[in-house]
Amino acid sequence: MNHPAFDPEGAAGTIRGWLAEADRVLITAGAGLSAAAGYDYGDEDRFQELFPALHRLGLRSRYLVGVPLPPDLLWGYWAVHIDDIRFSPTPNPLYQRLRELVGDKDHWVMTSNVDGLFARNGFAPDRIFTPQGDYGRYQCTTPCTPAVWDSEPLVARLLAAYDPATGAVTDPDALPRCPNCGGEVEINVRIGPEFIDSPYLPAGRRLQDWLGTAPSGTRLLILEFGAGFNTPGVIRWPGEHLTRSLPHARLVRINPAHPETPADLADRALPVPADAQHLLGMAGSQRQCEPAVRRSMY
C-alpha cells in the first residue's frame, strides 16, 4: 500500500517528542521487527542457503508449520533454524538501537516473537512477556507433564548428527524424546492446544500489575513494531484496546504493510508506514534536538 503523504522525518520527530513526554513505554512487537532485523521467515534466498535439501524438495521459506516431514528432516530443520535465530551470540544492531532509544524510561516488552532477541540485546529478561513461547524451550507433545526443558543442549546434540547434504539427522538416537514419558516432543511455541504456557504466565501477571498499578495520569507510550494480521489478537488489537482504555496513552504503529490506526484514537495514534530499520535510525538520531511534535494532549 502506498502512503504518498508520509513524512518520515516528521514521524521520527513526533516519536522523539512523544517519547520525551512519556512516563512509561510499552514496546510491542510482531514478526515484522525481527524481519527488519535480518530474520525474515519469508526470505527464500536465506532459506536456500540454510536448508538446501529442503529447498530441493520444493520448500521455499521457514513457514513450515503444517508441512509433514519425517522426524529426521523435521528435527534437522528445527536444529538449524533455532541455532540460527535463537542461539546466535552475535548482537543485533536494530534491537540494540531500540534499547538505546528507550534509554532509562520505565518500560516493558510484549512480543509474539519467540527468538529471544530482546533479552539478548539489552532488555531486562524479567520485563519481557512472550505469550507465544520461546525457541529456547521444548515440551512433551501430549503433554504428559507441565514441565518444559532447555532446548540448547537438544539443538547441539541434533547439530552434531546433522547432515547438510540431506537435511537429515543421521543418528536416530539423537532424535528427542520426552524425558518424562519417552513420547514425542515439540518446541515450546504456541502452535496447538497442547502448548504449555506456564513458563510465561508470571511475566504476563507482572506486566498486568505494571499497567494496572500505574498512578493516575501516567503517560504511557506504546511503540508497536511489525504486528500485522496473522495473530492480531496477540499484539495489534490489545495495543489498540489499551490505548482506548487509558486517556493519557499514545500508540505508534510502525508497519510498512499495515500501519493503519483506528479513527477513534485520532491524534493519540501515529501510523508509520515504514520499515523499523529506517525509522529507528531516524528516531534514534538527534534525540537532543527540538522534536517536531504533533499537537500535544498533555
UniProtKB/TrEMBL annotation:
Stored PROSITE patterns: SIRTUIN (PS50305)
Alphabetical keyword list: Metal-binding, NAD, Transferase, Zinc
All copies of domain Deacetylase sirtuin-type, residue ranges: 4-283
Binding site for Zn(2+): 140, 144, 178, 181
Gene3D superfamilies linked: SIR2/SIRT2 'Small Domain, TPP-binding domain
InterPro entries: DHS-like_NAD/FAD-binding_dom, Sirtuin_cat_small_dom_sf, Ssirtuin_cat_dom
Signal sequence bounds: none
Name under which the protein is recorded: NAD-dependent protein deacetylase of SIR2 family
